[in-house]
């Protein structure tokens, strides 16, 4: 099993450009999450999807949008990238109700110049 | 009240020693306390977790100690090895939160040979 797959692994954007980060899980998990990780800031939740068909804002949603395309896929879109969005982005999934264990992808390192 | 405070920020331990990382919380509704381990360039991975109905949980060299009255929990790594060098995150969650994890800021652990 691949677990959680994120693409791309690395990306450089110019300020104002847009892009979509892709995430897919093959564990039949109900819940999916997008985090950003910055030095000294730990993991901050951007958006999450508790189940297929629902999405909710997390701690730092400004400048991002998400789509839960189906049960497997949860994408994160930056409409107009800003240097403050330079970060490492992690997608995670969990079985949902009754089971809290998160499985993370290997991350996307994004630089906005 | 939603915060989880983790200390220390960084820790250096000699090979064979005991590594101890501490976390504290305020919200007594939290009912699940996991620890995640993250190696450079990888996503965090679940290491061990505890619920508040037990005071200690051991898996191999890793032990969680939980003090409900003090609202604190800690990770102990016995006989620390260079391969344990990683960043460790504590977290907390509660049943009514859509199973979102509230994360500590992380501890960078270095085990010296």
Written overview of the protein:
The complex is a heterodimer of chains A (113) and B (113). In chain A, a hairpin with a 3-residue loop joins strand 4 (31-38) and strand 5. Chain A is built from no helices and 11 strands. Chain A has 113 residues and is mainly beta. Chain A is globular. The mean pLDDT of chain A is 93. Chain B is mainly β and 113 residues long. In chain B, the strands form 2 sheets. In chain B, strands 2, 4, 5, 9, 10 and 11 form a 6-stranded mixed beta sheet that branches. In chain B, strands 1-3-8-7-6 form a 5-stranded antiparallel beta sheet, with no helix packed on it. Chain B contains no helices and 11 strands. Chain B has strands at 4-7, 10-14, 19-25, 33-38, 45-50, 56-59, 62-67, 72-77, 86-92, 102-103, 107-112. In chain B, a hairpin with a 4-residue loop joins strand 7 and strand 8 (72-77). In chain B, 0% of the residues lie in helices and 52% in strands. The A-B interface holds A 4, 31, 33, 40-45, 48, 50, 56, 58, 90, 92, 94, 96-97, 100-107 and B 9, 32, 34, 36, 41-46, 49, 89, 93, 98-101, 103-106.
Rg from alpha-carbon coordinates of chain A: 13 Å
SSE string of chain B: EEEEEEEEEEE
Fraction in helix of chain B: under 10%
Uncertain runs of chain B: none
Keywords:
heterodimer; A: 113 residues; mainly beta; seven-stranded mixed sheet; globular; B: 113 residues; six-stranded mixed sheet
Concise structural overview:
The complex is a heterodimer of chains A (113) and B (113). Chain A has 113 residues and is mainly beta.
Question: What is this structure's SSE topology?
Answer:
The complex is a heterodimer of chains A (113) and B (113).
Chain A: E1 4-7, E2 10-13, E3 19-25, E4 31-38, E5 42-49, E6 56-57, E7 64-68, E8 74-78, E9 87-94, E10 103-104, E11 108-112
Chain B: E1 4-7, E2 10-14, E3 19-25, E4 33-38, E5 45-50, E6 56-59, E7 62-67, E8 72-77, E9 86-92, E10 102-103, E11 107-112
Parallel strand pairs in B: 2-11
Antiparallel strand pairs in B: 1-3, 3-8, 4-5, 4-9, 6-7, 7-8, 9-10, 9-11
């Amino acid at each position: 099993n691949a677990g959680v797959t994120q693409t791309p692994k690395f990306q450089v954007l110019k300020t104002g450009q847009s892009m979509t980060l892709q995430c897919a899980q093959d564990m039949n998990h109900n819940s999916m999450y997008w985090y950003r990780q910055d030095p000294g800031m730990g993991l901050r939740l951007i958006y999450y999807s508790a189940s297929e068909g629902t999405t909710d804002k997390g701690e730092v949603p400004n400048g991002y949008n998400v789509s839960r395309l189906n049960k497997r896929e949860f994408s994160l879109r930056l409409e107009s990238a800003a240097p403050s969005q330079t970060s490492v982005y992690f997608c995670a999934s969990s079985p949902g109700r009754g089971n809290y264990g998160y499985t993370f992808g290997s991350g996307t390192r994004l630089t906005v110049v | 009240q939603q915060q989880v405070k983790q200390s220390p920020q960084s820790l250096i331990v000699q090979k064979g020693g005991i590594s101890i990382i501490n976390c504290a919380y305020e919200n007594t509704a939290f009912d699940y306390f996991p620890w995640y381990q993250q190696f450079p360039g990888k996503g965090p991975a679940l290491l061990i977790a505890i619920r508040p109905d037990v005071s200690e949980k051991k898996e191999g060299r890793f032990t969680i100690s939980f003090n409900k009255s003090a609202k604190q929990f800690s990770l102990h790594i016995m006989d620390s090895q260079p391969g344990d060098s990683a960043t460790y995150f504590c977290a907390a969650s509660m049943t009514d939160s859509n199973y979102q994890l509230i994360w500590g800021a992380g501890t960078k652990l270095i085990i010296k040979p």
